[in-house]
Specification:
D-Maltodextrin-Binding Protein, domain 2; alpha/beta; 2 domains; 243 residues; 33% helix; elongated; 8 helices
Length: 243
């Protein structure tokens, strides 16, 4: 039924302007990796894993700096205005470099002109995660429940305009249901409310809820493929075929 994929994309970028002379001794001091969301969320989890490998490769410490807020614009502005010496990196996301340009009328950074892209680092699957308090065991039952109680069920997101927000809005539109959107400042604070039932569901990165799905604390359903069909044809064994 739902064939439009929305995936979590992440890329590593730096402030534009690194000179050739500076490259000769680079890096000769610790680097700062700015993450646009709070600790514990998908971006933070991926960034810390990347930082560990990158530090070993470069021979310098990578300092994680979590700067959540405004859908990632706070962190992006910080890096855009940083000294362009290659020592301040941004763990960019689909939100910071694609969605925000359309969402904010006066974005105080240019996603294309203010950054030099280094590499695409992650393409992760997005999953529908349902609170244990919701009496539904399949997506079909969830949709039927939402239709029978318009405006009662809620879905949380990492913030207004985030990919998790757009995923929920897309689901509601395609399913023809009315659900309340509850924005959070990142995924980490949302997890607790999903587990306790304060929020009915979310459409978030698999990495955030992997342990909870494995232990059966929440219901998880595949919402998007981890990559294009040409790159991955196998279904994750954690997610049932019946939706």
């Amino acid at each position: 039924m739902f064939k439009t994929p929305i995936r979590q994309l992440a890329l590593l970028v730096l402030a534009l302007g690194l000179s050739c002379s500076a490259l000769a001794a680079y890096p000769d001091k610790p680097l700062r990796l700015v993450v646009p969301f709070p600790a514990g969320g998908a971006a933070d989890i991926m960034a810390r894993g990347l930082a560990q490998k990158l530090s070993a490769e470069l021979g310098q410490p990578i300092i994680i700096d979590n700067k959540g807020g405004a859908g990632g614009t706070t962190a992006s502005e910080t890096v855009a205005k940083a000294q362009p010496d290659g020592y301040t990196l941004l763990f960019g996301t689909m939100g910071t470099h694609a969605i925000n340009a359309s969402l904010y009328q006066k974005l105080r950074y240019d996603p294309l002109k203010d950054f030099a892209p280094i590499s695409l680092t992650h393409i992760t699957p997005r999953v529908l995660v349902v609170s244990p308090s919701v009496p539904a065991n399949t997506v079909s039952e969830l949709i039927a429940l939402a239709k029978s109680q318009p405006g009662t069920l809620s879905y949380g997101s990492a913030g207004s305009g985030s990919s998790s927000h757009l995923s929920g809005a897309l689901f509601a539109a395609m399913a023809g249901v009315d659900m309340l959107h509850v924005p959070y400042k990142g995924s980490a604070p949302l997890v607790t409310d999903i587990l306790t039932g304060r929020v009915s569901m979310t459409f978030d990165s698999y990495s955030v809820y992997e342990d909870h799905i494995r232990t059966g604390k929440v219901m998880g359903r595949w919402a998007s493929p981890p990559a294009s069909a040409s790159l991955c044809c196998r279904r994750c064994p954690l997610f049932p075929r019946r939706v």
